[in-house]
Every structure is written in structure tokens, then in C-alpha cells.
Known about the structure:
13% strand, disordered C terminus, Arginase, Chain A, eight-stranded parallel sheet, alpha/beta
Amino acid sequence: MPGRYGDSWRTRRDRGLDPRRDPGPIDLRRYELHPAYSGIATFLGLPLCLTPEDLKAGSVDVAVLGAPMDCGVGQRGASLGPRAIRAAERYLPSPAALMNHLHVRVRPFEVLRVVDYGDAAVDPFSIEASMPTIRELVREVAGTGAVPVVLGGDHSILWPDAAACADVYGPGKVGVVHFDAHADCSRDHMGHSVTHGTPIRRLIEDEHIPGRNFVQVGLRGYYPDEELIDWMRERGLHSHYMAEVERDGLDRVVDRALAEALDGPEYLYLSFDIDVLDPAYAPGTGTPEPGGFTTREMFPIVRRLCHEAHVIGLEVVEVAPGIDPGYTTALNANRVVVEAITGLAMRRLGLRAPAYLDPHTSGADRTAPRLPSDGAGSDTPT
Length: 382
């Protein structure tokens, strides 16, 4: 019957009908230890929160939530991205508490309280109607002081995600570093102004993020055209194309990107389109572009930015599991999130920057010159 359900897709359930419980994270595991592929699929099997009161009562530092939207892509499938990223783990067993990042020897899920916050409401028939509900849920997390980590979904969600963080921290106080093969600054796509190729224009024209503090890394291929490049320059965007990376190296480009994004703002938002990776590492995406980064290049950069900057939100988008042979794309998206959370944990621990690595696992304690044993001279015979 037409109109029978109306706006029920975005109407919150009356939590007063739930069994009485104290607010706080809900551990959904029935058993103490189980394989990653069993149980209810929260991110890494982490506890679930349903309300801001749960987040506050649990002193939550990071909340992972999904925005299963794919109305903005010509090739559908990204709506299943959040579920695929949550389920990508294959270790046996895989409780998050056992994860020890060997590059830095940090157990991120012991340092930080991380939970799953479920998914934002989306209208499968209207991308425009879905933007406010996504923004509302991201703002709900950020408003508690937790870092929202949004699993996409197509890249249209950058508009509500970053806008929600600007709502909480203040317009003009948040810079963005955007990793992507594509500029996503178009005025419209085939007459539609809200798509996965237009969120940056929406953000900047709505004055949520200053153009001069929006920074792009990894652009390549055959888009944008000259007219769009001119618009990006006029608005002050800093766009670092793959040609610049090839010329100067990724580390130097990221140094520039971080300085540009935080030229004025105190806070940083990260947007990671999985197609910034080469299709060898991310075949399961709607708009693959050859010539991209490897995971070995990108993982340390994500970890570094979350370590060195005050990151208040991030997203990983455009995973389309239906065209992801061998779950490679979902696994790498999952690992981008883990790298980001590890960087946030390193910042909490006060580890020295920049580009910190553990002396033992990086070999620094074996390759560094030996110090004299008595401080007066070498203890090695000459």
C-alpha cells in the first residue's frame, strides 16, 4: 500500500521498549574466544553502542559506524561495503584486544575504548533524503567527544560526514586530507548535484570546510578536466596529483598536505577512498584507476596522520564487495581503519613523532652505532 510506511526508515525505535539496562557498551559475544567469522558481525567483534548515553557511559574514544549508501554511484554495490569491512577479518581467533601492531608495538584496542555504533539510516530510493540522517548520526558520535570512523558506502557521504564534524568543532576549524584517485569536485553528474563525484563542492560551497584547507592526495587518470581544475584553483584547494608524488616522493607530499590542511584549523578529518590504492590492492570498487598506491605506502601514512595530527573523524569509502574477488578490497579497507586507530592510540600514549617505529621491530636497535661502554671512548680494540 503506497505511503504505508512513510518515514519509518529514519524513525528511531523507542528504546523505552527495550529491556531495562544501564547505559554503556554491549558485548555481543556469547563465548570468551571465537573465530572472527562467527558471532554477530561488529567491527573486529567489538562491543556495540546504540545511543549517545552508551558512548558517554562507556567513555568511548572511537565509534565505528556504517553509512550504507550507494545511490551516488553509477555502479551499485557500495551499500554492502560497511558489512563487508566489518566481516573482512579472517584470523582465528581474532579478539581486538590481542592485536599488537608490530611496526610500533602498540595494542591499540587496549589503549583506546573502541565500539561499533551500527549504521546510519539510508533511504535506498533517495540519496538526498539520506544525507541528513547520516549527518545526524556522525554528529551524534562526535558530539560525545568520540572519533567517528565511518564505513562507506559511496563517497557522497563525505558531505554529511565532514559537515557533521564541522557542526561540532566549528566551521573553518576543521581541515581535510582526502586520499582519492578522483577529484570529486564536480558541479553535478548527469544533472544530479548530490553524487559520489560532487561532495567536495557541496562542502565548500556550504562553507563547512574552507577551500584552502581541503587537501587532495593521489589524483590521477583522466579527470578532472581543465574547467574543473580552474574551479579547484579558484577555491584554493590543494591538489597533489600522482605526478607530484612521482616527482617528489610520497613523504614530502604528505608533509605539504598536513601543513596545508592545518594552516589555521586545529582539527583534521581524513577521507580515504579505497580507489586511491592501485586496483591490484582494491579491485572491488566502482571506479578503479590503475597506477595507484600500494598498501605498504598508504598504511604508514594513515597511521602517521592519526598520530601526528588531532584527527577528529575519518571515513573509508567506495568498497563494493560484489566485485571484490578474494575479499582483498574489504580486508585492506579494514586495515586502513586499524592503522588509523593505531595512530590515535600512539597519540594517546605520547609516542614521539614523526613517523615513529619501534626500535626493535624496525631494526634500529641493531643498526645504530654502539655507544662507548664508559662514555669516554670505544670499547672495541683498534
